[in-house]
Amino acid sequence: MTISRREPWLLLLPAVALLALGFLTPVVGMLVSSVIAPEGGGVTLSNFERLFGSEYYLGAAERSLRLSLIQTALAVILATPIAYIMSRATSWVRTAVLVVVILPLLTSVVVRTFGWVVLMGPAGALSSLPGIELLGAGSQGLLGTEAGVVIAMVQVLLPFAVLTILGVMSSVKQELEEASRMLGANFWRTLRHVVIPLSLPGIASGATLVFALSVSSFITPRLVGGVQLPVLAGTIYVDSTVGLDWPFAAAQSVLLFAGVILVIAATLRLGKVDR
């Protein structure tokens, strides 16, 4: 019995159709909307001219990129040792740590953010810590500061980084670490030259996921940072829902989408490693 060359493509057709409906269609609609004149009826680049000519929106885009990179770096730095401990720990320790990691995901991000608002407020526990002024805390505590946004966002993003890195780090055989130790390398050299290089695909994937979630988040930056620290996702939300300026919001979305694609391409290239 011979299999037709068309059969694999026919099997892929439902998945391709679903992908086109759920992803390509909204993206194409966003691209089309971004070049529609505000008054309608024509094609124009005025939305992008307005975007790149505004210090407010360029500042929001710069802040979104900068804070997202910082949050991604901190989340990956914190998640890597946690994932390593989980991958090498006994089953009950791994289960206990896993519960602690995923427990925040069972709570709404809005509820968690309001918890951080209380902790970072003028009378909050974090605001009374010694040396907190070095993070920019003022009369409102850490509210309205970039440090406050970073702290709250890292707590939100950390579980995603841990779970992504854990999947790859668990596949690194312990025999390789034992061989490295037997050849004279200490723990830190083994970690640097064996475990981390072999875990780079998972670290890159975790960084990509965390960055995409971070740069598109607006609830936590809005509640913690306030209106004085606008981010691009927040301006898109305001312009599309309050101002009802869909073409201009689409132009901002295109800029955000392009930035995410560039970062994803860079992290995927970084994560390529011969295993």
Structural account:
It contains 11 helices and no strands. With 275 residues, it is mainly α. 72% of the residues lie in helices and 0% in strands. The protein has one domain (48-270): MetI-like fold (Orthogonal Bundle), CATH 1.10.3720.10. The longest helix has 34 residues, at 55-88. The model has no long low-confidence stretch (mean pLDDT 80). It has helices at 6-34, 46-52, 55-88, 91-102, 109-120, 146-169, 174-182, 187-215, 219-225, 232-241, 246-270.
Rg over C-alpha atoms, rounded to the nearest angstrom = 23 Å
| CATH homologous superfamily descriptor | MetI-like
- Quick check: average pLDDT? 80
Spans of at least 5 consecutive residues whose pLDDT stays below 50 are: none
CATH architecture: Orthogonal Bundle
Helix count, DSSP H or I runs of 4 or more residues = 11
Strand content: under 5%
Beta-strand segment tally: 0
Which structural class should the secondary elements be placed in?
A: mainly alpha
CATH topology: MetI-like fold
* Helix content bin: over 70%
Provide the domain count: 1
Name of the level-1 CATH class: Mainly Alpha
Q: What distance lies between the first and last C-alpha atoms, to the nearest angstrom?
A: 38 Å
Secondary-structure element order, N to C: HHHHHHHHHHH
Could you give a short description of this structure?
The protein has 11 helices and no strands.
How is the topology of this model organized?
Layout: H1 6-34, H2 46-52, H3 55-88, H4 91-102, H5 109-120, H6 146-169, H7 174-182, H8 187-215, H9 219-225, H10 232-241, H11 246-270
